[in-house]
Every structure is written in structure tokens, then in C-alpha cells.
Design brief:
Layout: H1 8-19, E1 26-30, H2 37-49, H3 63-69, E2 76-79, H4 88-99, E3 108-113, H5 120-131, E4 137-143, H6 151-154, E5 158-161, H7 166-171, H8 174-186, H9 195-203, H10 205-225, H11 237-246, H12 249-266, H13 273-288
Parallel strand pairs: 1-4, 1-5, 2-3, 3-4
The chain binds zinc ion (ZN).
Zinc ion (ZN) binds near residues 51, 58, 60 and 61.
């Protein structure tokens, strides 16, 4: 499954929880509209139901995956506000459904989209459900505004806060951002040892990686369309031009894959962050110096 970059670390964390069988009974996914919550939650639903999850996600082959994809899984239910809203009876039915034993001897998964839109009576019924033992069921609540939820509901959930889109992330840390981009334009590993760059990487490694990622997109866009995006209005066109005389877009695409891998890698526990960056910087230097040996990390 390929996610938007800012969802990738969250997805990796969820995947680890499932593979290690350490799954909370209730999740609360929270983030602004249009950020990719639905895609993330749906992928997670299938993963939770899958009978043989792999390191990449649901297997897509087992009976459970088949039933889920056909939208006929007896152990899955989704409540949403799309049709007639969610009333107190819907929440009570949901509780009742959770109490029953599962059909496929696995977990039961119930998603509730728009948990922040529940009226007080329904929200209280939901709280009651969360207070009861949920057995093998996993409840996935999805909300846009965390402030509209009862604190008692929040405290019973494992909260997955979906961060601001990468665009906003990369627009923070202005000075360090420029320093990092400058070092990249030079394509010289020594430049990355600068103190402000090292500080940036340690303080916010994901933002640094997103930044590199979007900067590479800029290079590709410039190579293909001769224009840059609004994202980096301080990007130096001459630098891009001279860079593109040394490197090919194919190389940039390949390196982009490596950055994406690094983002995945970074979300695993116990990873040496500076090693991840060091390896990326060396690969980039090799590309810029035109070494033919360059390959995938
Ligand atoms: Zn499966």
C-alpha cells in the first residue's frame, strides 16, 4: 500500500502494532478533512481482519481479505454520517454487535466515522460501550475535531493524530530548510555536517526527509516543465539548471524512491537516524559527482 508521505510513518506504526499483536481496543484517528484518514482507516480495517498479515499489510489472499474487499465481511461494520446520521439506537446496536462472538474466529472491527459529530446522548452511549470490555473487537473512531469529543471518550482511545500535510511541515524551520537545500544543491557530503543542518535532522528528522522529498519533486518538475512550484519560492533557478547538467531525471526518481524508503525506515523502532541521513547524503553525492556505480539503497 502506498500512502501519502505524511501517512506513511503512521501506517508503519499501526502495522507494527498488528504484527506484534499489541493492539489497543479503541483507536481514535484525528486530523483535518481531506488528509487521507479514510484511506488509512480502510487499509487498517482490512489489516485487522486479515488472517495472515504480512510486513507490508493485509495479505489480500485469505478468506477474510476476500470478504472484506467484497464488502461482505460478517465481522466488520462501519457507521457513518453519510446517510441518516448516527443515532443512539445505532450506537446501541453497535454495542450489541460487539458483544456477539465473531464469525471468522478472528477480530471484529467496527469503524465509526464522524465521532465528533455525535449528539450528546449518542456520545454517552458510545462512552458506555468503551467502558465495557470489548473482547476481540477493535473500535476505530474517526474525527476531524478532537475538541468536540468527550474527554472521557478520548482517554479510552489510542489517539492517532494525523499531522498537518507535509507542505506545511516543510514550510516551518525556514533557516534550517534553506541550509539543507543549499547543501543538497552543492551535492557535497561535507556540507551536511554543518551544525544547523545536523540540529534540524535531530530535532525533526521527518520534516527534513519530507523537505528533501519535495525538493526532489521540484527538480523533476523543473526538468520536465521548466518551472518551479510555489513551495520553495527561494529556490535558485540557476542552481537547478546546473544540477540538471550533471544528473538525469531518472536518477532523481530513483533517489526519490530511496528517500521514501528512508521515511518508512525511520518510523521503525531503534533506527539510527543519523545513519539513515548519512547514507542518503552519500548516495546524493555519488549522483552529483556522476558515479556510475550508484544504485538503490
Ligand atoms: Zn488476508
Amino acid at each position: 500500500m502506498i500512502f501519502e508521505l505524511w501517512l506513511e510513518p503512521i501506517w508503519q506504526r499501526l502495522l507494527q502494532q498488528v504484527l506484534r499483536q499489541k493492539i489497543p481496543h479503541a483507536f481514535l484517528f484525528c486530523g483535518p478533512k481531506g488528509i487521507g484518514k479514510t484511506q488509512l482507516v480502510q487499509t487498517f480495517e482490512q489489516l485487522l481482519l486479515c488472517q495472515s498479515p504480512t510486513k507490508d499489510g493485509a495479505c489480500g489472499q485469505c478468506r477474510s481479505c476476500y470478504l472484506y474487499l467484497q464488502q461482505h465481511h460478517p465481522d466488520f461494520k462501519c457507521l457513518s454520517f453519510d446517510d441518516e446520521g448516527i443515532g443512539i439506537d445505532d450506537i446501541r446496536n453497535m454495542s450489541h454487535y460487539i458483544e456477539q462472538t465473531s464469525h471468522q474466529q478472528g477480530r471484529k472491527v467496527v469503524s465509526l466515522l464522524g465521532a465528533d459529530k455525535l449528539l450528546p446522548a449518542s456520545a454517552n452511549a458510545l462512552l458506555k460501550t468503551l467502558e465495557e470490555p470489548l473482547g476481540d473487537a477493535v473500535l476505530l473512531l474517526v474525527a476531524e475535531n478532537l475538541k468536540l469529543l468527550l474527554p472521557t471518550i478520548k482517554s479510552r482511545c489510542f489517539i492517532i493524530n494525523i499531522p498537518q500535510p507535509a507542505l506545511e511541515i516543510v514550510n516551518e524551520n525556514h533557516q534550517q530548510r534553506i541550509a539543507l537545500m543549499q547543501a543538497f544543491s552543492e551535492g557535497n557530503v561535507k556540507a551536511f555536517e554543518r551544525e544547523d543542518i545536523q540540529q534540524f535532522i535531530v530535532a525533526d528528522p521527518f520534516a527534513a526527509l519530507y523537505l528533501i522529498y519535495y525538493w526532489l519533486i521540484e527538480i523533476i518538475r523543473y526538468a520536465l516543465q521548466s518551472k518551479t512550484d510555489f513551495l520553495f519560492n527561494d529556490v535558485n533557478e540557476n542552481q537547478l539548471k546546473s544540477l540538471l547538467q550533471t544528473i538525469t531525471t531518472t536518477q532523481v526518481f530513483t533517489f526519490l524512491d530511496n528517500v521514501q524508503e528512508a521515511i518508512k525506515h525511520l518510523s521503525l523502532p531503534g533506527v539510527n537516524k543519523s545513519l539513515v541521513f548519512e547514507s542518503l547524503f552519500c548516495q546524493w553525492q555519488d549522483i552529483c559527482q556522476g558515479e556510475k556505480k550508484y544504485g538503490r539503497a
